[in-house]
Structure prediction request, 391 residues.
Amino acid sequence: MRCTPYNVAMRTQATLGLLFLLACAGSATAKDKPRPKPSPKQVHEAVQAASGWLRKQHAQAFDTTTFHSVPEIVALALHHAQVDRQDPVFRTALTTIETCELTHTYRVATMAMALSRINPFVYRARLAHCAQWLVDTQLAGGEWGYPGTMQGRAKRTKALQVDPPVTEEEAKGGPKAEPILIARKAAADAFAGQEGDFSNTQYAILGLRACMEARIEIPKETWETALAWTAAHQLEDGSFGYDHAGQRDEAGYASMTAAAACGIAMCQSSLGKSPKAHPAIKKALAWLDKRWTADDNAGIDESIFIPPSTWHCYHLYSVERAGRVLGVKKFAGLDWYAEGAWWLLDHQQGDGSWNDTRGDTTATRPPYLQTADTCFAILFLTLATPPLTGG
Prediction:
């Protein structure tokens, strides 16, 4: 064939087209290829910036009047960020949670988690107090809720008052200390007619498990009924949704499914059983293996209770707990830590905080949610949840 200018032009155009397609294919492959985990330096810098924001944000005294007061989760996050305990904000948070009235499941459970991580035997008396409170506020069905929850409304009333069952001297006993046996003081029928919710229940389980680090023994019945209530709310596809005051969600989503798997595993372990052996866990993990992504709290758009999008840091922390407790490295074939860590690093704000406002239709987001997002992100990045043994 003669090499005419037309043929040369056509060949050149075809060659350029092929190179363009190959370049696009290479770009797509590079884009779709999972990134390796962020470096320890990148994670450290993100966590330090976040802890700096928390300390600046909460330089004044903490509010302790509502279920969404934050001294407990701030103390937990600052501990995992390796902030010096003599830091004024950390010290204030610790003093607050050592002395405040025990109210609301979220706060008592997170208090137990914080004190147990810092030093379970230094704070043994307070942990025993938390354990007693959580055991006594479990509802008849095996779940927990907001104090005073009835007929779908959260009437926030004063919670039970219990005396610490140990002395300060006994609290210094360390790992060789005799076990503290918790027995329920308040009858379950004291909460007749009340039904709780899934989120409070998962936190109560986390708090009770944390208390066990101080050799505090929780009644077997507490674990059995919590396990039965949680497992009974699994949907047919293996997922879990948010259940509140007797109303069941129509669809499950990733954060609640991961939280349920973690809670069931903790109950199983606390009863001396293999954490992964419960059939509900296998179904939940199978659902996560089909649906999970770091970019989205899969399934939340179908919830009848929860607004979409604005709970992503909470979602990632739920995944961290499930992954750590169950010893699972990947969901849906993805390294959940690498994927989640990159999402957080990519979405951290210039001031060091996280504030997931996507889909939020309110003019201003309550400040406690920004604090919560930032704490959840720190807890994820630092792999704050201790694994269970004997999987």
Q: What stands out?
A: The two ends are 72 Å apart (CA to CA). Strands lie at 180-181, 216-217, 330-331, 334-335.
